[in-house]
Fold this sequence. Notes:
The chain is an alpha/beta fold. The protein has helices at residues 4-16, 21-35, 53-56, 70-79, 115-127, 205-214, and strands at residues 41-45, 62-67, 84-87, 99-104, 129-137, 150-158, 161-172, 175-186, 190-201, 217-222, 231-236.
Amino acid sequence: MYGSGMAEIYELLHESRGKDYRAEAATVTELVRSWNPQAASLLDVACGTGAHLRHFAALFDKVEGLELSDAMLAMARAAVPAAVLHGGDMRDLSLGRSYDVITCMFGAIAYLKDTAELTATLRSFADHLAPGGVVAVDPWWFLETSLDRHVSADTVTVGSRTMTRVSHTERQGHISHMVVHYVVAEPGSGVEHFAEQHSLTLFTRAEYEEAFTRAGLRVTFVEKIQSGRGLFLADRAEGGRR
């Protein structure tokens, strides 16, 4: 889980590395509205610091978020004060309401451990859809497209703060083990170092599609967008697509 150190610099660091949250939110919204032009309410599952959610808030009448990390949730509340934010795990989604759109962005779905958890979680997404509702899932890399022993490094300066991120990812079976080290330097505060470890499941594309189907959802995969990982769009199989 992301701690307080990462929560503070998360969005700033990724934006400085070239991630365009506004453009991604606009792309997802355009695709979702091609299926459901009247979509007005959105739940962003694993919303993190609210980086996507704050842009969704300008595109939908009502937005809500769900986040497991308390530190991330606190940042999201500050970033999107108009949103209703829930603390909780996507594995236990039970909010007692429905939405026109449910999103899960930036590979967060890969924190699910196996296809059983993936299917159950997608089924809970389906249970929270309003009639005509759409699910949009931004996956992690597929098993067949993932890189083993991958190293990534970036140093960025924003204002007076300089941040370095170095990661090493190693594939073990269907799991991508990622160790990330951060060094943050700022005048008056000195230098801070912290590290985090993440285990992300490398589902195959077929495993994702089978899980959507088992969850009662009809799925389409849009290739090449979202930094090359693509995007899954789905609606209830019995509801039909507009």
